[in-house]
Amino acid sequence: MRRKGLIINDRQLDRCDELLRKLKEVSGSSFLALISTSGQPITSASDEYHPETLSLASLAASSFAATQQLAKILDESEFTLLFHEGSALNLHVSEVTDQVLLIVTFGRETQVGKVRLYTQRAIEVLRQIFEGPESEATPEMDADFESAAGDAMDDLFKDE
Amino acid sequence: MPLINFAAREINYKIVYYGCGLCGKTTNLQYIHRKINPDARGKLVSIATEEERTLYFDFLPLTLGTVKGMQTRFHLYTVPGQSYYNASRKLVLQGVDGVIFVADSQITRLDENVESYLNLWDNLLGQGDDLGKLGFVIQMNKRDLSDVFSVEDLNELLNHTGSPVIESSAVTGQGVFETLKVVCKQVIAKTG
């Protein structure tokens, strides 16, 4: 059975952030983000705050999922990469694990081959972070989280 | 399958509105977007046809705020209702934590409701998920119209799990927040 969820601990996030920072430097990309395959953002590296990260994560994950289904229909074993070329910006989405995707955006001045090369190397390290032994260290949720969230919902989800 | 980011102190849940074409899934999201505190919502994204029928999904992120130190978010999605968009529906269901099945109460929509309900469970079972951990609520929509099934009849047809049932009119907003609240409380209780 699935439904194991995706749980990120401090050590994993620190290592991911460090790696994204390095990848951003060496690849010349402008924005990088790790997201879940169900469309939720995990962490990002950017020159400035990206205001639409939630929508970006949702749309990128959905596009990637659709691309994988296209591969199946075409009898291709897998499309592990989604690439969009724009007039000023390019978008590169690649699979890290079956639960995690890496989004990279970069300008026309940056070579696609360079981004692909460094991204592929980074994915090998990221895969170890999400699937290696350190992913086992899972903190516990606060015991009162459920009741506190219930109170917050009573307050937020109302007509007036 | 919530995403719990202990390092960033964030927790994200995915809720999907499911149901046949024109049952009111998008109208639910539009009402929530209109009425909820603007500080608590993100942008409503719709991938729709020129006739404003959902082609892939609608997406609305909601922020509950910081609960016990965790930034808590619900990501609301709709699926395209028409039967030939099943490939898209399967994709939207990936990683879902809670489902709201929106039933169209009109007598003329019986076949479409049953087909959509069976399709939902086919798709969920096909994903291999542990359905015991899935939040599930049935919203009986369009109760403001006159030519509608009784709640008892619809319940017998569309609720083999004995899940909570909420009567609604998504156009007026009746039952919209109540439905959302019930399913969100379920997913937190089940996935904790």
CATH superfamily of chain A: Dynein light chain 2a, cytoplasmic
CATH architecture of chain B: 3-Layer(aba) Sandwich
Gap from first CA to last CA of chain B: 11 Å
- Largest interface (CB < 8 Å): A-B, 47 and 56 residues
Number of domains of chain A: 1
Question: How many structural domains can be distinguished in the coordinates of chain B?
Answer: 1
CATH third-tier fold name of chain A: Beta-Lactamase
Q: What's the tally of helices of chain B?
A: 5
> How can the largest sheet of chain B be summarized?
8 strands, mixed
* Strand element count of chain B: 8
DSSP strand count of chain A: 6
Strand order of the largest sheet of chain A: 3-2-6-5-4
Named CATH topology of chain B: Rossmann fold
Taken in chain order, the helices and strands of chain B follow as EEHEEEHEHEHEH
Q: Can you tell me the CATH architecture of chain A?
A: 2-Layer Sandwich
The level of helicity of chain B is: 25-40%
- Classified by CATH, the class of chain A is Alpha Beta
Characterize the main sheet of chain A. Answer: 5 strands, antiparallel
**Regarding quaternary structure, how should these chains be classified?**
heterodimer
What does this structure look like?
The complex is a heterodimer of chains A (160) and B (192). With 160 residues, chain A is of the alpha+beta class. Chain A has helices at residues 10-27, 53-73, 112-131, 145-156, and strands at residues 6-8, 31-36, 41-46, 81-85, 89-97, 100-107. A five-stranded antiparallel β-sheet of chain A has the order 3-2-6-5-4, sandwiched between helices. In chain A, helix 1 packs antiparallel against helix 3. Chain B is α/β, with parallel strands linked by helices. Chain B has helices at residues 25-35, 86-93, 110-127, 151-158, 176-191, and strands spanning 3-5, 10-18, 45-48, 54-67, 70-78, 98-104, 135-141, 165-167. In chain B, strands 1, 2, 3, 4, 5, 6, 7 and 8 form an eight-stranded mixed β-sheet that branches. In chain B, a hairpin with a 5-residue loop joins strand 3 (45-48) and strand 4 (54-67). Chain B is globular, with a radius of gyration of 16 Å. The mean pLDDT of chain B is 94. The interface between A and B is large, with 47 and 56 residues. Strand 1 (6-8) of chain A pairs parallel with strand 1 (3-5) of chain B.
